[in-house]
């Protein structure tokens, strides 16, 4: 039931703090400051034998994998490749018993992701899945799994499954780091502290809903959008654009900000809103320079910025402020205003938010 909400998607956006609390619960042993993932079904010795992880997924789950690659490489120092489920088996992939395949799938029934698992199985890789639907095929065929604990997701546009699958990968990265000895006890304690703050940070981010709705009012009649991000927030630019196109039918592209000048800048004029994720992190100066370039071409710049950054208000036409969050976990907070923006724009255009045309919740055909 939707209760006080107009759409399931809106309800599911608001459920994210609770969903993340459920995802963390039981996986963090706060007494010993350790991550526990028994369903992964692997020993520390087996983890030390691995030399790469290949993440396979489709759509939003693929973007989640792009974020997770940063966690696993940074925290556990293990190489990660991220592949589309629909492409993987056509690439004659190089993998063996020292590879773990990480299939990310909300439904656990996406046929392309299942086909990638099949391919990996034949080549003797270890199979892990991150799934929301308990008992689904991707969970049953895996050697080990991590549940998203998002609860049922009804809206076709994925929201709470996206953020919980990112949190699962953060926990996985810490779990692998424990076995591989790549983090000190202090670093592990800090990482656990950081992830525990997420429900509160997302709760605070949701308080900006009225401001996002007002922005949607100013933007909903435009027909082309560009989303820019860098580093760990590049996948969030992709996800923001996907959300908008899925439910509002507006053309939107996500781009790594540095690539703008290699092509898409030709598109920018006064009819194109450009949403730039420009937080106060190491990439801030670079993002400011992209914003200046977009503005010089007449683009309408919307900056997603860190609370307290008044400088950016002089550079952008609109600013959405999010609470300061540790860099690695910032995607989880940053995606929330982009979900809300897509939601409000779609609602203003009178689109069927929960059941967009031509889309199914679970894609079970190739
Ligand atoms: O159930 P899955 O996570 O395997 O689904 C993958 C994609 O079909 C899915 O994320 C799709 O892109 C969503 N509609 C995005 O909102």
From TrEMBL:
Cellular compartments annotated: Cytoplasm
GO terms, molecular function: carbohydrate derivative binding; glutamine-fructose-6-phosphate transaminase (isomerizing) activity
Transferase among keywords: yes
Residues annotated as catalytic: 361
GO CC annotation: cytosol
Keywords assigned: Aminotransferase, Cytoplasm, Glutamine amidotransferase, Repeat, Transferase
Main subcellular location of this protein, as a coarse class: cytoplasm
EC number annotated for this UniProt entry: 2.6.1.16
Biological process, per Gene Ontology: carbohydrate metabolic process; fructose 6-phosphate metabolic process; protein N-linked glycosylation; UDP-N-acetylglucosamine metabolic process
Signal peptide, first to last residue: none
UniProt KW Cytoplasm keyword: yes
Assembly and binders: Homodimer.
Protein name: Glutamine--fructose-6-phosphate aminotransferase [isomerizing]
Encoding gene, per UniProt annotation: glmS
């Amino acid at each position: 039931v939707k209760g006080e909400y107009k759409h399931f998607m809106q309800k599911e956006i608001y459920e994210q703090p609770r969903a993340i609390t459920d995802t963390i619960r039981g996986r963090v042993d706060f007494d010993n400051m350790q991550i526990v993932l028994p369903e992964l079904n692997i020993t520390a010795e087996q983890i030390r034998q691995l030399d790469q992880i290949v993440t396979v997924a489709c759509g939003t789950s693929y973007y989640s994998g792009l974020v997770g690659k940063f966690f696993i490489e940074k925290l556990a120092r293990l190489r990660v490749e991220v592949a589309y489920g629909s492409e993987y088996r056509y690439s004659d992939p190089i993998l063996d018993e020292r590879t773990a395949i990480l299939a990310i799938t909300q439904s656990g029934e996406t046929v392309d992701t299942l086909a990638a698992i099949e391919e990996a199985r034949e080549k003797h890789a270890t199979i892990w899945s991150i799934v929301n639907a308990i008992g689904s095929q991707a969970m049953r065929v895996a050697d080990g799994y991590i549940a998203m604990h998002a609860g049922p997701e009804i809206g076709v546009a994925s929201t709470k499954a996206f953020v919980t699958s990112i949190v699962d990968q953060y926990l996985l990265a810490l779990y692998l780091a424990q076995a591989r000895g790549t983090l000190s006890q202090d670093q592990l304690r800090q990482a656990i502290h950081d992830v525990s703050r997420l429900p509160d940070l997302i709760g605070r981010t949701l308080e900006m809903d009225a401001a996002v709705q007002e922005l949607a009012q100013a933007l909903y009649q435009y027909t082309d959008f560009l989303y820019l991000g860098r580093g760990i927030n590049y996948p969030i630019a992709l996800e923001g654009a996907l959300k908008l196109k899925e439910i509002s039918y507006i053309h939107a592209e996500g781009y790594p900000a540095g690539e703008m000048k290699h092509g898409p800048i030709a598109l920018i004029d006064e009819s194109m809103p450009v949403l730039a994720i420009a937080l106060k992190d190491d990439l801030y100066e670079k993002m400011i320079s992209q914003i200046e370039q977009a503005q010089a071409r007449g683009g309408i710049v919307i900056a997603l910025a860190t609370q307290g950054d008044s400088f950016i208000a002089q550079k952008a036409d609109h600013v959405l402020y999010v609470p300061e969050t540790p860099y690695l976990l910032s995607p989880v907070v940053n995606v929330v205003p982009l979900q809300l923006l897509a939601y409000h724009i779609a609602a203003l255009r009178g689109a069927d938010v929960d059941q967009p045309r031509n889309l199914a919740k679970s894609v079970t055909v190739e």
